[in-house]
C-alpha cells in the first residue's frame, strides 16, 4: 500500500505536507482507505493541514 500512496503523492506533487481535503480526494481517486493515508503520513512525517475534522493542526 505504501508504494501506491507514494505514487499518488508524487503525482499530486505532495511533499512534506498535505491538506486534509487533498488527502480525501486522493483516497477516493486511487481507492486507498483514508486510514492508510493517515498511517503513511505519520510514518513519513508528512503533516496533514487544514483538517476537516479538526484532528490535525
Spell out the key features of this protein.
2 strands; mainly alpha; 57 residues; 3 helices
Task: Describe the protein.
- The chain has 57 residues and is mainly α.
- The chain has one domain (2-49).
- It has 3 helices and 2 strands, in the order αβααβ.
- The longest helix is centred in the first third of the chain and has 11 residues, at 2-12.
- The model has no long low-confidence stretch (mean pLDDT 91).
Structural class: mainly alpha
Radius of gyration: 10 Å
Strand percentage: 5-15%
Order of helices and strands: HEHHE
Q: How many strands, what sense, and barrel or not for the largest sheet?
A: 2 strands, parallel
Domain count: 1
Shape: globular
Helix content range: 55-70%
Number of helices: 3
* Quaternary status: single chain
Mean pLDDT: 91
Give the CA-CA distance, first to last residue.
Answer: 25 Å
Please mark out the parts with pLDDT under 50 across 5 or more consecutive residues, or reply none.
Answer: none
Question: Topology of this structure?
Answer:
Blueprint lengths: L1 H11 L4 E3 H11 L3 H10 L3 E3 L8
In short:
This protein has 57 residues and is mainly alpha-helical.
Amino acid at each position: 500500500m505504501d508504494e501506491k500512496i507514494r505514487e499518488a503523492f508524487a503525482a499530486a506533487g505532495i511533499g512534506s505536507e498535505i491538506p486534509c481535503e487533498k488527502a480525501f480526494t486522493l483516497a477516493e481517486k486511487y481507492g486507498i482507505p483514508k486510514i492508510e493515508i493517515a498511517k503513511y503520513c505519520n510514518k513519513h512525517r508528512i503533516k496533514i493541514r487544514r483538517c476537516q475534522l479538526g484532528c490535525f493542526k
